[in-house]
Amino acid sequence: RVKQEGRGALRFFEASMNAQLQARLLLGQELAHAVERGELVLHYQPIVNGVTGEVETFEALIRWMHPTRGMVPPIQFIPLAEETGLIDGIGRWVIDTACREAAGWPHPWRVSVNVSPKQFRQTDVCAAIGDALEANGIEPARVVVEVTEGILIDDADKAVAILNRLREMGVRIALDDFGTGYSSLSYLQLFQFDKFKIDKSFVNRLGEDDRALTLTRTIVNLGHNLGLQVTAEGVETQAQLDVLRSLGCDQIQGYLVARPAPIDAFTDLDRLRTKALFGRERARLTA
Ligand code: C2E
Ligand code: MG
Ligand code: MG
Ligand code: MG
Fold it and tell me: Is residue 179 in contact with ligand 1, taking CB distance under 6 Å?
């Protein structure tokens, strides 16, 4: 009996695996047409100055507006795009769209684009960035490329060569999700990043956990000692903001300031509200 039930469970397992595979295949086919059908959009999340609260940069975050599934987040289709080779076209679309939109912004805000490790290895990121800079006439210094430590795992020399080429073009390079994923610091000898983005898993725990505070302080100091800027991501509470500011964190990003949204949703009123979050702390410090 037990054996029979086991076999039944296995059949059920196989059937559901099959269903999952089918669903993935279908999603992949739909994704192949998403660019031409205009279903991909960029949302933007402000990254603000840690002292003044002024917006300095907007991070572009891709969303797939699927006609029946609704808004599909990147975690559900970027890995699929990487497996199917669609990441080349999608990545180019992201870089070009971000540069085109940012070139028309009413303020000289920077735009930050994400490039995943597989995308970095599979596609010619330098060509994509070079083409987008030229086509849209945006100054390279207004463009930031966010990469993670994962780009250095396979062939660090090649990755560093690509980063150096991007640097020569005049774009900035940020190290995203800093402190997760890759356990060695030796790669910091190979390349001078422009900024670290402290992963939100550290920021989340600030105020709950002394260890998170120590780690966050150490990352801020490490960044500053290496001569780079430090951004905290995933800031959700005023208490987290206050701690990060007291540590001298250069930039703040998170739901507390604003959620990612279409750029038009971000108004002057939001800028004032954002600055007010920082005013409270300033008022307290000067009291
Ligand atoms: P990331 O680059 O580390 O982006 C930060 C993620 O944290 C975003 O999720 C953002 O919406 C979310 N976030 C921002 N503030 C908060 C907060 O206060 N609390 C919490 N809990 N989350 C916050 P999203 O947009 O779902 O993107 C997830 C990841 O997908 C990104 O992580 C990035 O690795 C990747 N991604 C997004 N857009 C692109 C793209 O255009 N190309 C590539 N290759 N990857 C992308
Ligand atoms: Mg990012
Ligand atoms: Mg991140
Ligand atoms: Mg991430």
Answer: no
Q: Whose CA is nearest to atom 16 of ligand 1?
A: 234
Angstrom distance (rounded) from CA 212 to CA 276: 27
Question: Ligand 1 pocket, 287 CB below 6 A?
Answer: no
Q: Which atom of ligand 1 is nearest to the CA of 253?
A: 15
Instruction: For 260-287, give one letter per residue: b (16+ CB within 10 A) or e.
Output: beebeebeeeebeebbebbeebeeeeee
Contact 193, 216 (CB under 8 A): no
Out of 63, 114, 123, mutate this one to test ligand 1's pocket (max ligand atoms within 8 Å of CB): namely: 114
Tokens, residue 50: 């840690």
The 8-class DSSP code of residue 73 comes to: P
Q: Is 54 in the pocket of ligand 1 (CB under 6 A)?
A: no
- pLDDT tens, 25-62? 899 999 999 989 999 999 999 999 999 999 999 999 99
**Interface pTM, i.e. ipTM:** 0.98
Is the shortest distance between the CB of 73 and ligand 1 below 6 Å? yes
Output the CA–CA distances (angstroms, integers) from residue 162 to 146, 154, 155, 159, 262, in the order listed. 13, 14, 11, 5, 31
pTM of the model: 0.92
